[in-house]
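Listing S7. Sequence submitted for prediction.
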Amino acid sequence: MRTFFKLTSISIQGQLYYKTSFFINLLTPIVLLAGQYLLWTALYAEAGSEVIGGMAREEMYAYILISFALGNLIGWSGENMLAREIRSGTVVARCVRPAAFLVQSVAEMSGVILIQGVVNLAIVLTGFLCFGRYLIMPSVPAAGWFIPCLFLAVMLRIMLIDVFSLLCFFTTGYLGLAWTRNALFEFFSGAMIPVVMFPEWLRTFAYATPFPYMLQVPSALLLGQELPVSIPMIFVVQGAWLIVFMFLHGGIYGLARRNMTIAGG
């Protein structure tokens, strides 16, 4: 664990080194948050109803705030650190360090998540304090269940990024993979539109993927909204997908490592 925390500390220091870029990357997503609120406010006004797709206005406003916090835990630069190293060849440094490759990836992204998570938490708390009368408030029991669900959701997100990044060993670029990963996550996780508002056939398909369990399900659990399965089963499903991603990581990395040549090794 000492190695893990040391790598996480190094990642945090790296994020804080370029202060101007750091603050710009932290604050830019707030523009997207404001845009989402304006969009859904217009949609509710156009519908002339306080309920759209089974979600009341105060539910939607609270969902937007929580889903924003979960969806923007890792910025574009943080998501693609490993992919860029693979394409540049500097990834060989990870292969010779006295720490497992996966441990290094998780520690590095944990540093990014910790910084952004503190900022997102401040935004969420400010939102509930200033505009609480327009939002549904989470209950204490829901918050208790939310914490382990959030941890597993973050681990799923890290593993998803790691697996897609490893595919860069077999491509000539990483942007296509990054855009594909982001598109799948944004749509099927509920970041763009809550999964509960999907048509039934698409909602069933989405819940058969890991994406809603990274964002939609934790948000719904915290806000007391509709869940696809019971709370204990949520943890089972998240754990099962983590195991799947770990097997994928091991298989892809093993294949890449067998075909990698490191000078002097």
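Caption to Listing S7: primary sequence and predicted structure tokens for the chain studied. Residues 2-258 form one domain. The chain has a mean pLDDT of 85.
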